[in-house]
Amino acid sequence: MPNSWEQAYSSRRTGNSSSSDALRTDFQRDFDRMIFSAAFRRLQNKTQIFPLPGNTFVHNRLTHSLEVASVGRSLGHQVGNTLAHQIKENSSKQFYQSELSNVIAAGCLAHDIGNPAYGHSGEEAISDYFKKNANKMVNGHSLASYFNEKEWNDLTHFEGNANAFRLLTHHYRGKYPGGFGLTYSTLASILKYPCESSAKQKGKLHRKKYGFFQSELTLANELAQAFNMESDLSTDYISYYRHPFVYLVEAADDICYRIIDLEDAHKIGIISFKEIVDLYFSVIEQVSGNKNYSNKTKESFDSLGDKNEKISYLRAKSIGSLVEASQQHFIDHEKEVLHGKLNCSLLDLIDEYCPVMKDINDISIHKIYNHSSVIELEVTGYKVLFELLDIFTEAAFDDDSKAMNRKTKLLIPEQFAFYKDENTSPYEKVMGVIDFVSGMTDEYSTSLYRKLMGIDLSRDRRF
User: Fold this and answer.
1) What share of the chain is helix, strand, coil (3-state, %, to 5)?
2) Which helix (H) or strand (E) is 110 found in, with range?
3) Which residues contact 231 (CB under 8 A, 6 or more apart)?
């Protein structure tokens, strides 16, 4: 891992992008590239937790990512200022004072960009498609026989984190090399699990899931080498310990979904006003450990008349308390964080002395994530993505012997049509199909499914 904070950042980019914009720094450009990308805009129609759209406004992946970026910017600013005081080299001091916040904010914008429609049920649908069709005959061979062990492991354990890394860096047909052309610093900040799929192992935070497909293995190795990320020698598979910036992006995400999912649950009537108020006050008091601060918060809370405003106020105070505690734990565990060997998240450290955080987890699992509206959406999304993947995978593999498959291929956008390239491996062909299907919004995937299954025969193509 980096031997010092001076070695933990780089303005090097993927692709051939140069730093010619005098109006913005390299790291501000990362943030702007995310904001103005089509893939980021599509997050507005991807489910966070509750069904979209509805009579009551709840968060989608876009609003969630924007809020995570706001929290991440604050974390980056606080940590950066603290680190800058101990750094003597001027350019590095400037980075941590002014730019770390931009890197973390950009990483937060990017952290969910690889998630398919319908949340985790979409990931499960993609994985299960390949598991359940391993023996399906395609051009005289079983589907699984087209792939080596590591490639098959990618497909049967599809991971949104790895998909984000691919989406941000892959050279798609007709597009610029290097994907979004982001800096290595921003890319490193989203590699929560810097290992290949075969290296996954429970009990090790950096290998709880995986962070890159075989198609991005070369770039992942280059990134690790650029930051001197230490290899995990306890496995025969490729795995590295985390980059330190990951802990800040992860904390921002954890803070937002822990606190804001409660607010959405209240809006749709799953938890009561009293319940959410009590939880937020407990967070503020337990995390800050300051009774006077809690009392002052109570005075301001009582002065508000509108219930929604009261909840918004407590939500902001809860987030502020968690941000302050997270940055303190980052600094307190500086050596472990710098070397990527802190085997727990910053929020896990807070959980140890704040029992209300466990209460929130229990409520989220039993009342929110298992609510009937959420389950109905997951079941629907699973069916939609499973069937779409079946249709387009068969078409991409077919040697044009079937007329319908020839026509179906025309529906795959040119940038994902890797089946057209000579000498393209079966793995890259199917990854192109996954790119197409996983990039769909909830609404588009459902509309396309209804049309292809003959449920909706209208000619309106405006999705």
Assistant:
1) 65, 5, 35
2) helix 100-110
3) 224, 238, 239, 240, 241
Query: What is the spatial distance between Cα 152 and Cα 215, in angstroms, rounded to a whole number?
Result: 12
Report d(CA 213, CA 199) in Å as an integer. Answer: 12
For residue range 336-356, list pLDDT tens digits in order. Answer: 999 999 999 999 999 999 999
User: Which residue is it, tokens 């080299």?
Assistant: 89
pLDDT band per the 50, 70, 90 thresholds, residue 51: low
pLDDT for 366 equals 84
d(CA 100, CA 118): 32
CB atoms closer than 10 angstroms to residue 110: 29
Identify the pLDDT of residue 462: 45
Phi/psi of residue 13, nearest 5 degrees: -120, 160
55-78 pLDDT, tens digit each: 456 788 999 999 999 999 999 999
- The domain spans of the chain are 372-452
Looking only at Cα atoms, what is the longest distance across the chain? 75
C-alpha 372: how far from chain center = 25
Per DSSP, the three-state class of 138 is strand
- CB-based contact 105:73 (threshold 8 Å): yes
Pair of tokens at residue 371: 């609510």
Looking at residue 18, what is its pLDDT? 63
Q: Which tokens belong to 32? A: 């702007």
Give me the count of residues in the chain.
Answer: 463
Alpha-carbon gap, residue 261 to 234, rounded angstroms? 37
Extract the tokens encoding 116: 């398919």
Q: Give me the residue label for tokens 């749709």.
A: 268
Contacts (Cβ under 8 Å, ≥6 apart) of 303? none
Token couple for 175: 């597009």
Q: In whole angstroms, how far apart are CA 428 and each of 212, 372, 397, 420?
A: 14, 38, 11, 11
Q: Which amino acid is at 287?
A: V
Q: How confident is the model at residue 29 (pLDDT cuts 50, 70, 90)?
A: very high
- Bridge partners of 60? 47
Number of neighbouring beta carbons within 10 Å of residue 439: 22
- Pairing verdict, β 141-142 and 137-138: antiparallel
First to last CA, the chain: 46
* Nearest-angstrom CA–CA distance, 439 and 88: 44
Q: Helix, strand, or coil here: 240? A: strand
pTM as predicted: 0.93
- Omega prior to 116 cis, within 30 of 0: no
Encoded tokens for 89:
């080299």
Q: How confident is the model at residue 52 (pLDDT cuts 50, 70, 90)?
A: very low
Phi, psi at 231, each rounded to 5°: -75, 145
| pLDDT single digits (tens) 86-144 | 998 889 999 999 999 999 999 999 999 999 998 889 999 999 999 999 999 888 889 99
